[in-house]
UniProtKB/TrEMBL annotation:
The chain crosses the membrane at residues 6-30, 42-67, 73-95. The keyword Membrane applies. Residues 273-295 are annotated as: Disordered. It comes from Kibdelosporangium banguiense. The lineage of its organism: Bacteria, Bacillati, Actinomycetota, Actinomycetes, Pseudonocardiales. Keywords: Membrane, Transmembrane, Transmembrane helix. It comes from the Bacteria. This is Uncharacterized protein.
């Protein structure tokens, strides 16, 4: 009987020891800034599960062995190992309980002031107002010292217009782009979508560095977009945080020189023609090493 109990106890101690050692090693690598440790933790998840189960099996086996053996030394050894494994099991339950409480705090909806502070500190990558009225947002970086940091990602939906205004201010003043969209209102004036614009409006947007892409010769990715207003030969695709222009062949002679002048001044718009991006000229605000290609 005692021999049968020693086997699961020994195996359980070995599994728990290996799991603890591997986890400690990954933590040290993460603190040193080694990349890829998060993926290694995911790959070793089965080892963590096996260690958790082993605290049950080994703990019970150790206590049964301590009560069955006649040797005081073996009784002390088996009882100590079994009690230690059950203690680890209890501590894991406490940690899980704390994690659940922490998750409830992370699921909270942050206030408008908190959200505005995150946008102005350039911590936010983008946000979206969902159909349920809640604004869900993403961070620029979720990792710190190789560890994934969980933080709240829901904000008060009533502050969406203020969030958009703050995002636009950050983009204009600091060059940090925060994307946004409103899924609860497809006709949101803050993200108007596609419309026809005049030469004067297109010129003003180009000179103000508000246009990311200038397209001609082809659809420029606008083929499936509906444009409002009277056709003028100049299409504007306006997402609020980013804008693109596409001109018809009849307007190319008028608009291309204006767009080139804006490109020399600001480094954009980037030209799109014949289904691909043009290499950005070095004198358009980018060094040759920053030139971009795309097909």
């Amino acid at each position: 009987m005692t021999v049968v109990l020693w086997v699961p106890l020994g195996v359980s101690v070995a599994i728990v020891g290996v799991s603890a050692g591997v986890h400690s090693w990954l933590v040290l690598l993460a603190r040193k800034g080694t990349s890829g440790t998060e993926y290694m933790q995911i790959a070793l998840a089965p080892l963590s599960v096996a260690a958790y189960v082993s605290t049950y099996v080994g703990g019970i086996s150790g206590l049964l062995l301590a009560s069955a053996t006649g040797s005081p030394i073996l009784r002390f050894l088996a009882g100590g190992l079994g009690g230690g494994l059950l203690t680890l099991n209890a501590l894991s339950h406490v940690a899980r309980l704390r994690e659940r409480r922490r998750n409830r705090k992370l699921d909270r909806v942050i206030s408008q002031d908190e959200m505005l502070e995150l946008i102005r500190s350039q911590t936010i990558k983008g946000f979206c107002k969902q159909k349920d009225g809640v604004v869900r947002f993403t961070y620029v970086d979720y990792w710190q010292n190789g560890e994934y940091i969980r933080r709240p990602s829901n904000a008060d939906g009533a502050g969406y217009p203020a969030y958009v205004a703050a995002a636009d201010d950050v983009r204009r003043q600091h060059g940090h782009t925060v994307s946004y969209r409103n899924e609860s209102d497809p006709h949101d004036p803050l993200t108007p979508g596609g419309r026809w614009i005049t030469v004067e409006e297109a010129t003003a947007l180009l000179q103000a560095n508000e246009i990311k892409t200038f397209a001609y010769t082809g659809s420029g990715g606008f083929a499936h977009t509906t444009f409002k207003g009277t056709p003028t030969g100049i299409r504007l695709l306006d997402h609020g945080w980013v804008r693109h222009i596409h001109v018809n062949p009849a307007m190319e002679a008028t608009m291309i020189p204006i767009a080139r002048d804006a490109q020399r001044r600001h480094g954009r718009p980037q030209f799109w023609m014949n289904g691909r991006y043009e290499q950005t000229p070095p004198d358009a605000g980018h060094s040759p090493g920053e030139a971009r290609h795309s097909t």
